[in-house]
Design a protein that fits this description.
Blueprint lengths: L16 H9 L46 H4 L6 H11 L4 H14 L6 E5 L6 H9 L5 E5 L29 E5 L1 H5 L10 H13 L3 E6 L2 E6 L4 E6 L2 H15 L19 H7 L3 H4 L4 E4 L5 H9 L5 H9 L2 E3 L2 H14 L3 H23 L5 E3 L1
Parallel strand pairs: 1-6, 1-7, 2-3, 3-6, 8-9
Antiparallel strand pairs: 4-5
Helix pairs in contact: 3-4, 4-5, 11-13, 13-14
């Protein structure tokens, strides 16, 4: 008699909420986190458990090819204290307190060998990837991968799901891997034969999140990577799903009196794991997540404050980068903020606008006086 527990096949995507509920909770089905066969799943920690004292965490060893020299700002951050990491992130990120807290805990846990499989949802330009870039200044072993360009193993061309491992130090494999634009990869796409290409590509991620050993060739030498040491973050806007939810909730509110009716904007309601499955993320991947974090959209006023007054303002950052005192009028800040908001690219767009103006003025200064100006008014 087969003693193995009953398992459920999740090869099909787009199941209804009722079907998924049955699959996830039917008698005999053992969720991933409770499965005896699930690799590297830690046992529950008793309430009386006291962790073994750990040495104070510092920047990675200088022998690692991922190490960098800490800046005065990052040197003040205590990696043994998630509140210290959170405080550092808030200096650089605006109005994303929940996400910053989640990111701080993700890094704190990761440095203690507690790896994560996280989804981050929110509109473009709201700071999903930027927060990870800020964390990289604290822990350089973070790799950002453009998931929109990934293809399945065995297909022609590059950009396979596991190609990121070429950027991982084989001697120090405790990396955080961020798959940016993951919603582009998860959105259902069908081949001429009717196969869901997206589902097939997503299946490639399973061996990563399950902590399997992966072998790749580097310079004709086989390298072995233990993905159980890595944390994985899947970032995406999932904008189509957010808009669909907003439209349904707006229509529902119109059923009341006009005074009670309200217009619901996209991302007003946080996305949950069921929403991700409805969008096209395969249930096998969703069921292995340890965290879902939502990033809130920013307004034109938010961008205006970010650009001119926030401690992490791109004006202040570019001023330090160029070694020039930058003076930007309120009118110009407002124009930059409006374009950043309209573009949907957020602070990245604002930074590009300011940098373009700096370059034009620096070139003009050298052309006229042959020197770099100490103060630049934009």
């Amino acid at each position: 008699m087969n003693s193995n527990p009953k398992t459920t096949d999740f090869n099909e995507t787009g199941k209804t909420a009722e079907t998924r509920e049955k699959l996830f909770y039917e008698p005999g089905y053992i969720p991933y986190e409770h499965s005896r066969k699930a690799p590297n799943v830690p046992k529950p920690i008793p309430k009386t458990y006291s962790p073994r004292p750990r040495a104070k965490l510092t920047q990675p060893n200088s022998s690692s090819k991922a190490s960098v020299k800490p800046s005065p700002e990052t040197a003040e951050v205590d990696l043994n204290n998630p509140a210290s990491i959170y405080k550092y992130l808030l200096k650089n990120v605006y109005k994303q307190e929940e996400y910053c807290k989640d990111a701080a805990m993700l890094l704190y846990n990761h440095l203690r060998g507690i790896t994560s499989r996280a989804f981050v949802c929110g509109p473009s330009g709201s700071g999903k990837t930027y927060v990870m870039e800020c964390l990289k200044k604290l822990w350089p072993r973070i790799v950002v991968v453009n998931a929109a360009k990934l293809s399945k193993e065995g297909w022609s061309g590059g950009n396979k799901v596991t190609d990121f491992l070429q950027r991982v130090d084989a001697e120090n494999q405790d990396y955080i891997i961020v798959f940016d634009e993951f919603d582009k990869c998860a959105k259902p796409q069908h081949s001429s034969g009717g196969d869901n290409v997206s589902s097939t590509i997503q299946s490639e991620f399973l061996k990563l999140v399950e902590g399997e050993i992966v072998r790749i060739k580097q310079d004709k030498t086989e390298q072995v990577f233990d993905t159980s040491k890595m944390s994985f973050v899947f970032c995406g806007s999932f904008a189509e799903k957010a808009k669909e939810i907003a439209e349904k909730e707006s229509e529902r509110s119109f059923g009341f009196t006009s005074s009670a009716a309200k217009h619901v904007e996209a991302f007003d309601r946080k996305l949950n794991l069921d929403d991700l499955i409805d969008f096209g993320v395969i249930p096998e991947l969703v069921s292995r997540s340890t965290m879902i974090s939502n990033v809130r959209p920013l307004t034109k006023e938010d961008y205006e404050y970010l650009i001119s007054d926030h401690p992490g303002s791109p004006i202040k950052q570019l001023s330090e980068t160029y070694g020039i005192e930058l003076k930007v009028s309120k009118k110009k800040c407002k124009e930059i903020a409006e374009e950043a908001f309209r573009s949907g690219l957020g602070v990245r767009n604002a930074t590009s606008q300011i940098r373009r103006m700096i370059d034009e003025n620096v070139f003009a200064s050298f052309e006229q006086s042959g020197d770099l100006p100490e103060v630049l008014e934009l």
